[in-house]
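Objective 1b. Sequence-to-structure analysis of 3-dehydroquinate synthase.
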Amino acid sequence: MIIKASSKDYEVTVNNNFDVIEKLQIDKDTYVVIDKKLYNIYVERLFNKIPKDQFYIFESIEENKTIESALQICEIMTNIPAKRNAKLISFGGGIVQDVTGFVANVLYRGIHWTFYPTTLLAACDSCIGGKTSLNYKKFKNLLGTFYPPDQIQICTPFFKSLSEKDFESGLGEVVKFNVMYGEKGIKKVEENINLLLARDEKTLEEFVYNSLAFKKAFIEQDEFDRGIRIHLNYAHTFGHAFETMSNYVIPHGTAVAMGMIVANRISLKRGWLKESIVNRIENVIWKIIHVDIQSIPMNMDVIMAAIRKDKKQTSTDLTAVLMKPDMSLLVVHDVKTSEIKTAITYLFDNLRRK
Ligand SMILES: NC(=O)c1ccc[n+]([C@@H]2O[C@H](COP(=O)([O-])OP(=O)(O)OC[C@H]3O[C@@H](n4cnc5c(N)ncnc54)[C@H](O)[C@@H]3O)[C@@H](O)[C@H]2O)c1
Ligand SMILES: [Zn+2]
C-alpha cells in the first residue's frame, strides 16, 4: 500500500514471515534501534548479525520517550560515516517509532528511515500518518513533528510474542477502525473477534491491512491534522484521560476502547445511536479489555480535569467526536460535563462487574 505525503510517497508492506529481516544487509551507513523486549526475544533468530557498534537497544517506557533519548541516538549516529545519507532502521512499537521518527527528522534535517512496527497498535495505526511525538516533563506528546518513514515493513509473526495486555491494546484500535466504518465493520469484527483474540495470522493480516487502508483516506486528505483527520480522534478525548489518569497502566488502545464506550453512551443518550448498535459494539469491547479498575485510582474529578486538558479542548463545554444515527462522525462542541460523567459511571460500573 502506498501512502501519499507532501514530502514523499511511502510504502507499507504486510509480510506474513520474517524473510525481509533475515535478508537485511546492514552496511556501514546504517544504524539500527531495537526495542529492548523485542531484542531479547528475537536476538538469536533475527538480530545477531548486526555489528555491535551499529545498534542501540531502547527500553520502551513513556519515561524514555524524551528529547534526551532522541539526542543520545543523534549523537551516537554522528559516528556513522554517511551524514545526510545515513540510514536509520527501527524495530518496535509506538514508543520506538516516536523517538526514532523524531531522530530521523532532525538529524542533518532528515535522513533515510525504515520502520518495522512490532506491536499490533503500531502496525494497524500509528505507523502511518507521519506523526512523531516526545513527552516533556509531565506533558505527554508535547513535542513533535511530521516525518513519515521512507518504508514500513510489518511482519505479522511479531504479534505472537506480544503480552496479552499489549495485544489487546492493539485490538482496541482495530475495533475502533471497524466501528468507524459503520454497521458492516461492526459485523465483520463480531464475526472475527475470536480469531483475532486467538491471534490467527491470516485474520490479523487482513485486519491490519484494512485498518491502514481506512486511516490512509483521512491522512492523505488532511496530512497535517487541520481538518477531517480530527475524526480519527473518535474515542480519544476520553481515552487519553484514562491513559494519563492510570499513569499509563491502561495502555493506549485499551483506553481508546474505553473511550469508545463513553462516546457511544453519550450518543445513545442524545438519541443519536440505536441501543442495539451500542450493545453490539460493547459486546465486542468487553472481550478485548481487561482492566483491574480496583488497582487504579479512578477519580471522576481527575478524569474530568484530564479531559479538559486535552489539546483539542477550547471552551467550557467539551469537544468530542460522536457518532450520528447514520454512524457518520461529527465533531461536537457542546458536550456537557454531566453527559460525560453519566457515561463514565456506566463504564466503571460495568468494568467493576467484569
Ligand atoms: N506517532 C503516532 O502517530 C502515535 C499514534 C498512537 C500512539 N502513539 C504512541 O505510541 C505509544 C504506544 O505504542 P505501543 O502500544 O506500540 O507501545 P510500546 O511501544 O510501548 O510497546 C508496548 C510494549 O510492547 C513491547 N514490544 C514491542 N514489540 C513487541 C513484540 N513483538 N513482542 C513482545 N513485546 C513487544 C515493548 O517493549 C513494550 O513493552 C505511546 O507512546 C503513544 O503515545 C503514537
Ligand atoms: Zn489511538
